[in-house]
Amino acid sequence: MAILLDILIFIATLLLQTSLLARFHILGFTPNLMLILVITFVFYKKAYEAYIFAFLAGLVLDTLSAGPFGLHVIIYLLIVFAGTVILNEDQTKLSKLFSMVFATAAASVFYMALWFYLSYSSGSFTASGFLFAIGQITATIIFFAIFMPFLKRFFLWQKRIERA
To answer: What is the domain extent for residue 127?
Structure first.
């Protein structure tokens, strides 16, 4: 049951990010919902589930995006690795401050790596590209702050169902 719910959330997030949010930008920026979901998987799922989800999410997004192939996979797996090194198995008492700091760091690593790769491949490091990456980080963090309480309740509810 839990695996089916995870697959359903993955498909819904993928469709929302690649179809709806790709067309309707919020103040010119598109939040990375899959990154938000990967971070919550790190917080509320077992390590192996988070690794599998991060790999599959990165692979699908790399396939659908026009960016460098493998960037999503590498960054998502690094985020899961950092999260599993820092966190223990029981994340039910996870503080809001830590989750926001971790999400900010994860989004920063993702968008700065993307900005660096695109700047390096084009041969020009522009301030506008850097500022756009900062805007993307901000949009992702705002959406993380909005959706995190709902995702937390959902994953904790899912854990209670698994135990029953």
So the answer is: 2-163
